[in-house]
Amino acid sequence: MDVDGRGRFRTRVWAARLAIVAATAAVALLVLVAGLRGIGLVLVAVAGTAVTAAALWWALTRRGVLRACAVVLAVAVPVAVLWLQVASGLLWLLVCCLALGALAAGAGWEALDAESGPRRQPVTATPPPERPFLIMNPRSGGGKVERFGLKEKAESAGARVALLDPDRPTDVDALARQAVAEGADLLGVAGGDGTQATVAAVAAEHGIPFLVVPAGTRNHFAMDLGLDRDDPSKALDALRDGVELRVDLGLIGERVFVNNASFGAYAAVVQSDAYRNDKVRTTLELFPDVLTHRTGPRLTVRASGISADAPQAVLVSNNPYRVGDWAALGRRDRLDSGALGLLIIKIDSAAQAAELLRGDRAPGLTVLTAREVVVDAETSEVNVGVDGEALTLPTPVRCAIMPRALRVRVPRNRPGVPRARPRLNWRRLGLLALAR
Questions:
Q1: Which of 24, 297, 404, 411 could form a disulfide with 237 if both were Cys (CB 3.0 to 4.6 A apart)?
Q2: CA of 2: how far to CAs of 7, 12, 122, 131, 292, in Å?
């Protein structure tokens, strides 16, 4: 082990010791100062959290008076729990215990993380493109193309830019294919993930690199590539000083996706014409029937030897999303694993809704990976949300992975993808704390 390796190991050992000391201190403080009263208050807080989750389920699946009662319950229970903590005179103690618990968790994650810093993605050094072609949507992200001067900066880097006309629909696929026919050796997009996927499919088909400029609203694909989402113009540095990544693409039917395809409740809601104008009201109006299967098709999902009947929501992703880490939901650790991620939610009662607080251990939540996922229904068509776009596809819908199908050019210097936090394992922490 080299000097840096020994230093890192010593840091992990002391972090493990700190985690165990802090966790022990939290329990000891609670028991010694408050005794059974303190333990009772903790149990009340846990029960209150479960009741609140159940009440939120009732609020989503009921209408009228029942929904109003559920909302009142969801608000009243946390207030009542907090009042009990204050009235007991032990609120300060619980705050101290929570602080010690947070310290223990932070130190434990540091100890169990064998490496530090962003995850290193395998890259290939390639010469800069000679005839790059970029498509830019001036409306994406509230006008980021104009705000960051993306067109001018791209042109100064030698790129040819096609600016989409917001008032005239453009066939982006045809535009990208025409650019390739005219000799473009790189395709890029400054826009949303749906447009990114369309042009990425053309780039993958012709074996030329693809440039992602995070000028959309959420930019999930750019986030998981480790790009700077705060300043999309920095992605253009790749035109002069860049490296290449090989990433997977998802395939749903004959359509490529870069992030995910969703079925069930969310897909049904986004199909509504009223959703764009009033998202909250439309969701609350449609969810009671969708979540309880009074409307909409009953889905069947088959993948990796398992079958799930009548789930409320299904998410098929290009590489799996992180689960169990509430601070990093919506992130993917890598885009080159060669597997689809599959998340299935099936809830039949408020009790099962409350159990979702257990994360990936909840019985109503299925998380796995697969090379192919088939979603079927008793209807001839189903609603699907693909990279944020509402579609209707014939059943059965087949999703597959295209391993390392896309060459992505990224700046040599970029933020990178933060590492996933390891699951806390107190046995491993104990062994590490005893190491010399």
A1: 411
A2: 9, 15, 23, 45, 59
